Amino acid sequence: AQSVTQLGSHVSVSEGALVLLRCNYSSSVPPYLFWYVQYPNQGLQLLLKYTSAATLVKGINGFEAEFKKSETSFHLTKPSAHMSDAAEYFCAVSPYNNNDMRFGAGTRLTVKP
Amino acid sequence: NAGVTQTPKFQVLKTGQSMTLQCAQDMNHNSMYWYRQDPGMGLRLIYYSASEGTTDKGEVPNGYNVSRLNKREFSLRLESAAPSQTSVYFCASSSRDRNTEAFFGQGTRLTVV
């Protein structure tokens, strides 16, 4: 079975600082990996996805993530945080051969002015 | 373009009552999912349906039943609600192509007293 672990339930950065949200996965088969964002009282929106085409994936709102098989990681980064980035972020993994998508516990990002 | 629509948005139940959460998608997706979101635990998969007529258990299926009524609709039923089922429930859908992400509804906030 596959799973993801997000390191740090809360991350706080200053506006303009680097954002780094960590995600490690476990999967017995080649995985598909996703990052989602959730704003208060809303559903989840896709930020980006890895589907084996390229290890560095660019998403919306200036976010990107790099798939590192040797480290079983898929960390999310953004060079410069904006106040509007404050939200909860979820990493998810899905095996290539079925629909059983599993989510991490989430990381709440706070951006300080 | 409605995407994934969940009803109701809010519900309060007494312990032992039953109810059905409704979900419909208009994207012609084959796969549909029900998740529950609890603080600090991320999203946990309750049930999923890879195609019309099939359903499979996820991580936390106990206390729930599902019905894939047709390709558009996937309902979640609580036969005898318990306080432990107080949560936010999300329905999602995705296409058969494993490269695509899941699209989420806005959620149903359920309180069992």
Describe the protein.
The complex is a heterodimer of chains A (113) and B (113). Chain A contains no helices and eleven strands. The N and C termini of chain A lie far apart (41 Å). Chain A has 113 residues and is an all-beta fold. In chain A, the strands form two sheets. In chain A, strands 2, 4, 5, 9, 10 and 11 form a six-stranded mixed β-sheet that branches. A five-stranded antiparallel β-sheet of chain A has the order 1-3-8-7-6, with no helix packed on it. Chain B is an all-beta fold. Chain B has strands at residues 4-7, 10-13, 19-25, 31-38, 42-49, 56-57, 64-68, 74-78, 87-94, 103-104, 108-112. In chain B, strands 2, 4, 5, 6, 9, 10 and 11 form a seven-stranded mixed β-sheet that branches. Chain B has a four-stranded antiparallel β-sheet with strand order 1-3-8-7, with no helix packed on it. The termini of chain B are far apart. The mean pLDDT of chain B is 92. Chains A and B meet through β4, β5, β9 and β10 of A and β4, β5 and β9 of B.
Q: What are its keywords?
A:
heterodimer, A: 113 residues, mainly beta, six-stranded mixed sheet, 0% helix, B: 113 residues, seven-stranded mixed sheet, four-stranded antiparallel sheet, globular
Quick summary:
The complex is a heterodimer of chains A (113) and B (113). Chain A is mainly beta.
List the helices and strands and how they pair.
The complex is a heterodimer of chains A (113) and B (113).
Chain A: E1 3-7, E2 10-14, E3 19-26, E4 31-38, E5 44-50, E6 56-58, E7 64-68, E8 73-78, E9 87-95, E10 102-103, E11 107-112
Chain B: E1 4-7, E2 10-13, E3 19-25, E4 31-38, E5 42-49, E6 56-57, E7 64-68, E8 74-78, E9 87-94, E10 103-104, E11 108-112
User: How do the SSEs of chain A run, as a string of H and E?
Assistant: EEEEEEEEEEE
Number of strands of chain B: 11
Radius of gyration of chain A: 13 Å
Helix content of chain A: under 10%
Assembly type: heterodimer
Poorly predicted sequence stretches spanning 5 or more consecutive residues of chain A? none
> End-to-end span of chain A in angstroms?
41 Å
Strand coverage percent of chain A: over 45%
SSE class of chain B: mainly beta
Largest sheet of chain A: 6 strands, mixed
Q: Using a beta-carbon cutoff below 8 angstroms, give the protein chain pair with the largest interface and the number of residues from each chain.
A: A-B, 27 and 26 residues
- Name the average pLDDT of chain B: 92
Structural Rg of chain B: 13 Å
SS content category of chain A = mainly beta
Per DSSP E runs of 2 or more residues, the count of β-strands of chain A stands at 11
Number of helices of chain A: 0
Number of helices of chain B: 0
The largest sheet of chain B, given as strand count, sense and whether it forms a barrel, is: 7 strands, mixed
